[in-house]
Amino acid sequence: MLPRPLTVTFDAQDPARLARFWAGMLSREIVDGAGGPVLPGEDGQLGLRFVPSRAGRVGLNWLHLHLTSDDIGQQQRVATALELGAGHLDVGQRPEEGHIVLADPEGNEFCVIEPGNAFLADCGLLGELACDGTREVGHFWSEALGWPLVWDQNQETAIQSPLGGTKVAWGGPPVAPKTGRNRQRFDLVPAGGDQRTEVDRLVSLGATRLEVADDGAVVLADPDGNEFCVRQD
What we know:
Layout: E1 7-12, H1 15-26, E2 31-33, E3 36-39, E4 47-52, E5 63-67, H2 73-84, E6 87-88, E7 100-103, E8 109-112, E9 126-131, H3 135-145, E10 149-153, E11 156-160, E12 167-170, E13 184-188, H4 195-205, E14 208-212, E15 218-221, E16 227-230
Parallel strand pairs: 1-4, 5-8, 9-12, 13-16
Antiparallel strand pairs: 1-13, 2-3, 3-4, 5-9, 6-7, 7-8, 10-11, 11-12, 14-15, 15-16
C-alpha cells in the first residue's frame, strides 16, 4: 500500500489570517482549497487547511505542532512567531525544559523544539504533530495511512511516512475526556479517488461512520472518537 498524504484542518475565526501566520512560519505558499486556504505538504510534511468556524475553544487542543530548530534557529523562529502575531503560553512547562511554548493568533498551542532533539532529527521544519491519544489509535493511523510505527513504548506511539518528514505521535494515557467536536481534524483524500472504498477500508480498521458533510466529505471517528474526514478528490 502506498503511503497516504495527511492534511490537518483547523477551525478558525479568521482562516485567511491564520493561514498567513502559518505560511510565514513554515515558508509555504497559500493555495485555495475546499472550504478554506491550504498550505500543501510535500516530501512527507503535513498539509494544513484552515476553515471558518464560530466555535470557541474549550481547554487545550487535542493536538499541537512541534517546529524544529538548529543552533540559532530557535531564537529566530520564536522572534518570527512573535512578529507574526503569536504570544508566549504557559501550559505548566518546567524552566529546565528546552522547548518554547507559544500560541498562534487564535490561541492554538505550538512548540519550538530545542536544537539537537534526536527524535525529530531530519524530520524537517514541521517536525511533529503531537496528539493526545491511546496506543490503539496510533496503531489505527499507522494502518490507515500506511505509515510505519517509529515509536511504540510505554503506551506512547509515533508514525512517520516512508518518505520521511513530519512524525505524528500520541502520548498515551491519561487521555483527556472529549468535550464536543474537535477544532482540529485529520483530512484524507483516497488514493485513486474512490471515496466509498476508502471509507469501507477505514471502517474495517476500526473507524466509525458519523455523517456526510455538506461538501460531500464523509466524517468518521477514529478509535479514540476523534472526527476525521475522507474527501472526494
